[in-house]
Amino acid sequence: MTNKFATALKGRSANERVEPISGTRATSNAPSLHDRPSRKNTKHVGGYFSPEVSKQLRQIALDENSSVQVLLAEAIDMLFHSRQKPTITQKTVS
Fold first, then answer.
1. Residuewise pLDDT in 10s, the chain (94 residues)
2. Domain for residue 52, yes or no?
3. How many CA atoms lie within 13 A of 69 on its CB side?
4. How many domains does the chain have?
């Protein structure tokens, strides 16, 4: 059995540029299907926790008619306050 990918690469130099099949290139100023205006000038902050932590956090959000995002913003503000840092998350979370 032949590997089609290896066969296609055979005979190419390591520095040879391959043009896209479609012939069109995406421009950097063209809007993407994945653009989210509400996420502009923001950065994702996250972590890995057990499923129980996720479930409990979602349950608290449900009980308080809130969202996990708002609860995390509150927790981050509390952390900043306890470390005598300015609380900045309230400016970015609505």
1. 678 777 777 777 767 776 767 655 555 666 677 788 888 888 889 999 999 999 999 999 999 999 999 999 999 999 999 999 988 755 555 5
2. yes
3. 7
4. 1
Report the alpha-carbon distance of residue 28 to residue 23 in Å, rounded: 16
* 27 belongs to a structural domain: no
Residue 35 lies in a domain: no
| Residue 19, φ and ψ in degrees, nearest 5 | -80, 150
Whether 9 is in a domain gets the answer no
**Are 80 and 87 in contact, with CB atoms under 8 Å apart?**
yes
pTM above 0.85, yes or no: no
Residue 55 lies in domain = 44-94
Give the span between the Cα atoms of 45 and 13, in whole angstroms: 41
What CA–CA distance (Å, rounded) separates 54 from 71? 12
Which element (helix H / strand E) includes 70? helix 68-82
